[in-house]
Amino acid sequence: MPSSDAPIEIGRVTLTVRDLAAMSTFYQEVLGLHPMAGDASHVSLGVGDRVLIELRADPAARRASRREAGLFHIAFLLPTRHDLAAWLRHVAERGIHWQGASDHLVSEAMYLADPEGNGIEVYADRPRASWRWQGTEIAMDTQPLDLQALAARAQAPWRGAPEGSVIGHVHLQTGALEAARQFYTEDLGFDLTCTYRGALFFGSGGYHHHLATNIWNSWGAGPRDPKATGIAEIELRLGAEAPEALRARIGTDLADPWGIRYRLAAQP
């Protein structure tokens, strides 16, 4: 089950960036996205006809701190484990630095950062039949990932992000867990899918998570500075089975207690 089969899915994520050219080059060369629109002030990049990320230029923006509310990482979901293996070989051959790799039980993931410090996860899901639910919550963990075994699954060289790649989830830094739980379950209509060591995970339609919040670096943080680099907006695409109260607000924006903005759109 891809994350995009859910009643609520992640559409595009918008970042405020200082160096538009360098950031655009990174997302094209490292993640294999292609430019779809843009000018001197912004660039949209994606896969096929789907925009995944929009970069908005603000050369005067203050570099966001890792202790502030905002982005922890954007997670790019590849269609298959073979695709993740090909991407692993790609970054290894090019000498691209990554920050870690983990087996999360529901997925296999690798982590790195873009040139302005925004966290990135590149992952592939394990088959849904292997996910283990404990009541209403799913079992997730952070275990070592066998990189050699993964790399051996590559069937072809990396040719860029394959058709069907999406933003599977976005992980955020917030100032408090209970306020996050209330907003993401009550205002946005997500299910709480996992509680894990200072973090909460929220999903729709039985997916392990579309959004996550943590207080690992940002406990007690107030609203984020809208003039800082990093997350500017997250698009949520709503299907027919999304909560009706949320669907009634398609075309409008919501913001969580830390000023992280959500644009509500209809699924195509």
Summarize the structure.
By secondary structure, this protein is α+β, with helices and mostly antiparallel strands.
Explain this structure to me?
The protein is α+β, with helices and mostly antiparallel strands. Helix content is 16%, strand content 38%. It contains five helices and 18 strands. It has helices at residues 20-29, 81-93, 147-151, 177-187, 244-247; strands at 8-17, 34-38, 42-47, 50-57, 70-77, 100-103, 107-113, 119-125, 133-134, 137-138, 143-144, 166-173, 191-196, 199-203, 211-214, 230-238, 253-255, 261-266. The longest helix is centred in the N-terminal third of the chain and has 13 residues, at 81-93.
Shape: globular
N-C termini distance: 18 Å
Percent helix among the residues? Answer: 10-25%
Instruction: Calculate the mean pLDDT score and round it.
Output: 96
Give the SSE order as H and E letters.
Answer: EHEEEEHEEEEEEHEHEEEEHEE
Low-confidence stretches: none
| Sequence of strands across the biggest β-sheet | 11-6-7-8-5-12-15-14-13
Count of individual helical segments: 5
Strand content is: 35-45%
Write down the Rg. Answer: 17 Å
Q: Please give the largest β-sheet.
A: 9 strands, mixed
Question: Which structural class fits the helix and strand makeup?
Answer: alpha+beta
What is the count of β-strands? 18
